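User:
Can I borrow your eye for a moment on a structure tokenisation matter? Would you put together a sequence-and-structure record for a protein of your own picking? Please set it down just below, with no commentary around it:
AI:
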Amino acid sequence: MAAAASSTNRPGALEITRRLAEICGPPFARFAGAADEVAGRTARWVAVPGGPRAAAEVLRLAAAHDLTVVPRGAGTKIDWGAAPEQVDIMLDTGRLAGVWHEPQGSTLAEVGAGTPLRAVQAALERAGRRLPIDAPSPGATLGGVLAADEAGPLRHRHGTPCAQLVGVRYLDAEGELVSLGEAGTALLGRAAPTGVDAAHRGAAAIFGRSDLPGLDVARLLCGSQGGLGVLVSATMRVQATPAGRVWVSRPVWTPLEVHDLVRAVLAAGLDPAAVELDLPVPVPLPRRRVHPSHPSVVGRPDHPAVTGRSTRPAAAGSLVVLLEGGPAHVAERAERLVEVLGDEAVISHSAPEWWGRYPFAPGDTALRLEVPINDLHAAVYALRDAAGGPVPVRGSAGVGTVHAALPGSLPPERVDAILAAVRSVLLARQGRCVVVSAPTPVRRAVDLWGELPTLTRLRTAKAHLDPHHRLAPGRLPGGL
């Protein structure tokens, strides 16, 4: 706290602190502490506004004093991506929370950005509904999930959270509240949207057309890490909770086997909700070589002479398919899926322990690989070859998006060499390898993003929506 206080020891600092306390209330404005950092960059103040108008006042104050602002939800992904150049005010969205919808058959719900996703699902569950979103980060807020466009296993059928977005309220860099798409009015208590014309002009400037709806601009906020606007609320698609769910799993040994199985699953027309892969690093067990004629093995039921086949090594991983729908229909599809996957497939009414979790831990270098599904095995093999051995891989094999983990102890130059090798393989396959998070020395030394075809459009969006680079400067690709 002393370090944070000294960083604000300049003319006007106490006045800014006083104004933040007036806007947010004394308990909700303070000097930042050591834990208030973004990818290793410590903030100077923390402000927790109690509503959209207060959040707008914080942004206007920042604009008046040329201060940078970085939004924060639950902080579950605060170390993802690049470190911002500077964090003057960390704008905590925790009080921008709530869920508003019509329980009787409603297909939409407006959700405050600071609402934990678990709380959203719990509130909707009481009406027999859900958001088709299952982001892996425990405790994540909806705003944080959208800011990272973070998707879990359900991305196979429903896409990323951005695909479920139909309306949004956000604050621009000047503190103007903008309402786009089918955004509701519960947070504001009034019906008149603001900023729509400006947002439509923004769409024209960014996309080169003038007839696009403002929702195109809203969807630019997905994955922008707060660098294009501060999300206040989002209106999302809602669906009925499936009455039946089963998981069908099969052990797998090689990426090529996974490739063949995924193709078979998708060709079977069983409408899976998710197709997930888990390839952990196999732990070899000590084995003693025993001759097949030795008395200790002759006559055993699993002996090759009895089974007529050679024994297979312990499974290195699992391919798991989620089926959702009516109980009878799910049961029928599960039986058909077992026929596709073979005798080793198992039906379960609960997810495996690793389901919806990342393969990396704090301190690891976390990678995301995106590639057409027919080339996923090539990407995994390339990663193994570059790393010199198996690497934990987990994710949505059915859409070609998986995550992998490299040890945090690897030196930056080694990580850089691995990235270069993998990206060279993926480039010819229209794939990408992105560094999601990494230790600070690695983050500073390597290219986190690789080649990004949309960088020009992103640069145009930043120039239009945040021309003075006050919102999370440096968090976006290209140092934007």
